[in-house]
Design brief:
single chain, alpha/beta, Rossmann fold, Luciferase, domain 3, GMP Synthetase, Chain A, domain 3, 7-stranded mixed sheet, 29 strands, globular
């Protein structure tokens, strides 16, 4: 068992409080802080990527070039620019530079394609879209909805799109003067970061400059980042974790961020060791991949002093810590749009956090008794919600303050989506609480544990998957007449695998179906299992009944309908093959990797 470390936990909390206190005292945004570090750590590395690395002076200079380029394009405070770019050093420079002049940058999910990507880009009504040349072709559907000339590219795309490279090279790299552009306030919206939420298409969550600084300084305090630190970041930069928490916490401490385009279990320890990384930002699925990978010489020669992230399962925790000799694990719970977070500074295996007594007044979190059938918190005869007892599962909510920045909910670009996340008259008339959409329990010692997500979203491969999004794509597939999507548990795997119960025509072709979903959904959102039904059971309001489908899952001994599973074929190819009893046993035994 991982030994409790009260001093480590107490010191982490105190550092986080001290660092976040400086946000209002300094009154500056992250790009302005990078400018300050550039003067102090001119030639020290800031971003280390495969294609290009930047010192602090180079990063600050590139940010200022993007800022001046934006001003030359007529961009002003409050305008929105959508960014479609893979992980690279330039990614940070783009949004840091443009937010410096008050522009809001929308970080588009680069795994989306077709109409889903078009919706994400166009939903924030951008003045411009900046795309990496390699990803520009994926913007075909979005370009049709945007005015001509709105899409600009970085690099040569071979398309009829204007590159920005020459214009950028002509922009000055010195720090911006007040006469050129006033700095935005901390309350101004810096980023739109997309989240599926619990239902519907991708939603753009607002992230103010204050929250960027709050996340950065808070995690810098918890992880105790210093100039000598090097953070290994192989998570998507369009996510709040990979793009703000991992990068911001390191940059405000003057350290270096090692950016990789993607995670590779076979290269991970060699890369971490060669880059002399001291910190690693994880999601639980990555840790499981590492634990399941063959042993490598480098896996205990690293210089990591702390691994920080979320979703590390209890059954993986000890194996990850002991096999790879990780001195400290900092597990936490957070969501991009949430007004509260939880932190497991003590290193309690499986727990997502604990609120120390001296901070309870600053982190008003409650677990509400939940009505699973209705999908909402229970209310008593007086119309009020009730707190869960010890170890009782309920929905986590965070109280919205009547004034001040702390604990506020900044919401989404769409007002209606924001309103749906607020629960009112919870414990007393007029109070308001943010709904997390997550079910948790709290034990007698005050540790919180994640149980499941409310509603239609499940988690697979470290990503939240909206069943509504997936279902919309599946219903457009050849031979599919109707269907529902849900998540099912797979022994030994984190989260839930996607499963689709479909009503299909007699000539339904699994190969054509695989090609359809492969070109329209990111890999983590494609259904792993298919069940072909003669009909769908529905409620009186014509809503499909999923409980029985989820209960039967993909067991051929229980399900009489045809079953298929998505497996690897030729290199880079996926195919749906019939799922029989022998293959089912292989999946349960771990011989077949999904």
């Amino acid at each position: 068992m991982y030994p409790a470390n009260p001093k480590f936990a107490r010191d982490a909390w105190l550092r986080a409080l001290a660092r976040t206190k400086s946000i209002d005292e300094l009154g500056i945004t992250l790009p302005m802080l990078v400018d300050r570090w550039a003067a102090l750590r001119t030639d020290s590395p800031a971003l280390i990527a495969d294609g290009e690395s930047l010192t602090y002076a180079e990063l600050a200079g590139r940010c200022n070039q993007y800022a001046r380029w934006g001003l030359a394009q007529g961009l002003k405070a409050g305008d929105v620019v959508s960014l479609v770019m893979p992980n690279c050093a330039d990614y940070l420079a783009v949004w840091l530079g443009l937010t410096r002049i008050g522009v809001t940058v929308a970080l588009a999910n680069t795994h989306l394609t077709g109409d889903l990507l078009a919706h994400a880009v166009c939903s924030v009504e951008p003045r411009l879209v900046i795309a990496a040349a390699a990803l520009a072709p994926a913007l075909g559907a979005a370009r049709a909805r945007l005015a001509p000339g709105r899409v600009r590219v970085r690099g040569a795309s071979g398309l009829d799109l204007a590159p920005i490279d020459a214009e950028l090279a002509q922009a000055g790299s010195a720090p911006l003067r007040e006469s050129e552009c006033a700095a935005p306030s901390l309350d101004a919206t810096a980023l739109y970061i997309y989240t599926s939420g619990t239902t519907g298409l991708p939603k753009a969550a607002r992230v103010s400059h204050y929250r960027v600084m709050q996340w950065s300084h808070w995690f810098a305090g918890l992880t105790d980042t210093v100039p000598a630190d090097r953070m290994y970041d192989c998570l998507p930069l369009y996510h709040s974790v990979g793009g703000v928490v991992a990068t911001g916490a390191t940059l405000v401490g003057g350290g270096a961020v090692v950016i990789r385009a993607r995670f590779s279990a076979s290269d991970f320890w060699r890369d971490v060791t060669a880059e002399r990384c001291t910190l690693f930002q994880y999601i639980g699925e990555l840790c499981r991949y590492l634990v399941n990978a063959p042993q490598r010489e480098e896996e205990t020669r690293h210089a990591l002093r702390l691994a920080c992230g979320n979703g590390l399962r209890p059954e993986v925790w000890e194996a990850f810590r002991t096999r790879f000799r990780i001195p400290h694990i900092l597990e936490y719970y957070a969501a991009t749009e949430a007004n509260f977070s939880l932190y497991n500074c003590e290193g309690e295996p499986g727990a997502i956090g604990r609120i120390p007594p001296f901070l309870a007044h600053r982190l008003p979190v409650a677990l509400l008794r939940f009505d699973v059938a209705r999908g909402e918190p229970l209310r008593n005869a007086a119309g009020r919600c009730e707190r869960c007892a010890t170890d009782e599962v309920g929905e986590a909510v965070g109280r919205l303050p009547q004034a001040g920045r702390g604990g506020r909910f900044e919401g989404y670009a769409e007002r209606e989506a924001s309103d749906r996340k607020v629960l009112r008259d919870v414990f007393e008339p007029g109070d308001a609480w943010y709904r997390s959409g997550d079910l948790m329990r709290r034990d007698a010692r005050g540790f919180y544990y994640f149980v499941d997500r409310v509603g239609e979203t499940y988690r697979w491969k470290g990503e939240n998957v909206s069943t509504t999004e997936v279902q919309a794509v599946l219903l457009q597939a050849p031979g599919v007449r109707d269907g529902v999507v849900y998540g099912v548990s797979v022994p030994g795997a984190d989260g839930r695998a996607g499963m689709a119960a479909l009503i299909v025509d007699p000539d339904f072709d699994p190969a054509a179906f695989a090609a359809h979903v492969g070109g329209r959904l990111p890999a983590y959102a494609r259904p792993v299992f298919l069940r072909l039904l003669p009909a769908l059971a529905a409620t009186g309001t014509f809503k499909p009944i999923k409980q029985e489908l989820q209960g039967a899952a993909f067991d051929p001994a229980v399900v009489c309908d045809p079953l298929y599973v998505d497996l690897a074929g030729a290199p880079g190819e996926r195919r749906y093959v019939p799922l029989d009893a022998a293959l089912y046993r292989s999946i349960l035994g771990g011989a077949v990797r999904l």
